[in-house]
Amino acid sequence: MARFLVVVESPAKAHTINKFLGADYEVAASMGHIKDLPENEMGVDIENDFRPHYIIIPRSRKIVSKLREKEKGKEKIFLAPDPDREGEAIAFHLSQIFKNKNIFRVSFNEITREAVVEAFRNPDGIDLDKVKSQQARRILDRVVGYSISPLLWRKVARGLSAGRVQSVALRFIVEREEEIRTFQPEEYWTIAAELRKAQSAPKDKPTGQAKRKAQRVNAEEKFVAELRKIEDKKAEIKNEEAANKITEELKKEKFIVSKIEKKQKKRNPYPPFTTSKLQQEAFNRLRFSASQTMRIAQQLYEGIEIGEEREGLITYMRTDSVRCSENALVEVRNYIRKKFGQEYLPDAPQRYKSKVKTQGAHECIRPTSVLREPEQIKDFLDEQQYKLYKLIWDRFVASQMKPALFLSTGIEIIAGKYLFHASALKIVFLGFLLVYPEGKNEKGLPELAEGETLELLKLDKSEHWTKPPARYSDASLVKVLEERGIGRPSTYAPIIKVLIERSYIQRKEGHLFPTELGITVAKLLIIHFPTILDPEFTAKMEDDLDKVEQREKDWLRMLKDFYQPFLEDLNRARENMREVKKEVVVTNKICEKCGRPMVIRWGRKGRFLACSGFPECKNTRPISTGVKCPEEGCGGELIERYSKGRVFYGCSNYPKCKYTTRELK
Questions:
Q1: Which domain holds residue 520?
Q2: Which tens digits make up the pLDDT trace of 332-344?
Q3: Are residues 390 and 292 in the same domain?
Q4: Exposed, middle or buried, 648 (CB in 10 Å: 0-12/13-18/19+)?
Q5: What is the pTM of this model?
Q6: Separation CA 317–CA 299 (nearest Å)
Q7: Residue 433: which of 353, 344, 339, 322 has the closest Cα?
Q8: Active-site option among 25, 54, 316, 344
């Protein structure tokens, strides 16, 4: 019989760890948190120093019973949830369910045999400062959510909810949409000159091979220069008339090389991944959503069967640290030397500084062993696992390689009062780009000399319009959340997921659009809860939570300082918030069940059509988008529908017509 009980969060993690520990250890999974605040009430005694009332989660009752059974006869209990605040809180709550108090906390950044065995050699106690920080966050979020959500039910529609951090993210998305809607495009023109070295006329007409060589040389000596300045001022061409005038003047001018500047440029490798940077790069390169990235990373972290072995392939994936262990640095440097040669290896390891305060024990996201090359294990991974593992592997190896070197050439060309500019970039040494290419094409220029006269081949003028800022994508939203200090590595993906599930935003073609409901809720919250919706205030709260963990701030004092101003805003909002649900708009549509007019009302998913005879007649239907159903002979219109938190468009003639689409054309 096993002498020790080990508890982790997930069966996958338990399965991996079980292979590293001997028969003396029994490994079980808690399936995440076993305790939480109750769902049907706030669960926080505000008057009694914000005392939380934790209960065993209903779905966890059987799990707790099984864990208590497994405890019997065990000499020691080891708690091994993930190495972050949530993991520490899980460990703390697990410690409360056991009678045996011979309990130890083990923590590891990677699920490999070496790391796990070492952690069990050096067990520790539960970090109560981490627990206090997590508990303070949970109480904050519960107080905000369970205070504002009922207000939204009363003023807008039942079933709505608000979150302390998610609402700020929603604000960013809504305000970006407002910028796009109010943007006034402005016309401008650009002019480019296609040039080449002046050609001397051949004495004899070339034929055959000589002709083909001359054509190739001519093609290589062509290049394009952009108009940059007019009379030493930035070229600003407002309309076609001005562009035509300039091109006519340029046709009369000589194009002369006035300046050639050559510089060697260095591009340093990127640091290894943190959570936010992984989510951004996985979206940009692989088109993975933030949630998708974290789900796949979790699988790679918890362990994959590679032949007869099962180990975690990457280190813990919720981190804001770029630190790397000394052992990993030694391994990757040896790998680079053997694989690519000494010329690609810096004299000393690259050490990167984290932009924010991080916990010293945390590392970057890296492969647990660079010797496990992506191609070697491709057959053991599904397509998405392979792509993400390769991205992490490539980034980490590249981070310890030499910089890339480029030869940058800039050429200025004068044509009367006009100045043109052309540039070229030539790779001299690939460096880290050998492993982590960026997909940027080199541009070439012919060999030119200052004072040389060029031949003008043609002038191209192009019309442009200034563009509004782009809508947020998963990557750009995560980037702004990180830059503004909103949320933490573990919250970026859930923020986006929750906003979509609440029908506050939609994801279309990789971009995040606020719904009409999301815009309405965001505007109400901005007006009535300006402090909660203030990004600077939210960032300060995150900083305060970090200070609680670092023993620099008292968690109770922090909650008390927050609550009184919040309560004042809440009371004012109860009195003054606009009652959207009572704003009924009568339409010219007739209820097909009772013949009364249909009206527009608000619900949990946004606006919908309802019979004005409610409650006698409870007929409702979605509001049409006005887009005709493309099915031949159908005659219906497409309407918004919802399934599992996702929006799609279906025909109003369902179930007769079952046409659906995710995008309106």
A1: 136-182+471-576
A2: 999 999 999 999 9
A3: yes
A4: middle
A5: 0.87
A6: 10
A7: 344
A8: 316
